Amino acid sequence: MTIPLIQSRPFVSYWPHLVLNRWHQDKNDFIYSFWGTKLTTVYDMDLTGKYILRGEFKQTEDTFWQAHMDVMTNLKPLYIHTNIHWLDKDFQFLNAVIIPLEREGKVSETLAYVTFK
Question: CA-CA to 23 of 20 to 30 Å: which in 68, 74, 89, 103?
Answer without folding.
Answer: 89
